[in-house]
Request: fold
Amino acid sequence: MKYAFIKKYRRRHALTHLCAALNVSTSGYYDWLDRRPSETQRSNSSLITKIRCFHQSSRQTYGSPRIHKDLIASGESVSINRVAKLMRVAGIQAKMAKRFVITTNSKNTLAPALDQLKREFRTDRPNQAWVSDTTFIRTRQGSGCTLQ
Reply:
């Protein structure tokens, strides 16, 4: 973590000053730069790639439990907690679907109101006729509602 900070700010500050401020040696920093990723880091990178694949194929709706099941089915040996942690670190998050909530009882609904304006919206003076827009109300037919 300290070495990553040094690498990020090395162009702005002298290496010796950064190493002294964080109480690390410059040789340790150079050793860290040349070091290959560990087996765990390589495994995590591979798992994140597979997690992204399963996440995309589920239209970004799967969370860690379902992705964990997909990984197990594909032959990976990984715990659900590791999957959750890798998803959190990689910023992979499931989209929550909005549930449809029934707000009216359609069996007891009265017939629609009559069109008293007969689609004639022009008036001679203000406040003679009022209209409203109900296209924002969610319906079972889709996200948008167009009135004709």
Observations:
- The helical segments are 2-9, 15-21, 26-34, 39-57, 64-73, 80-90.
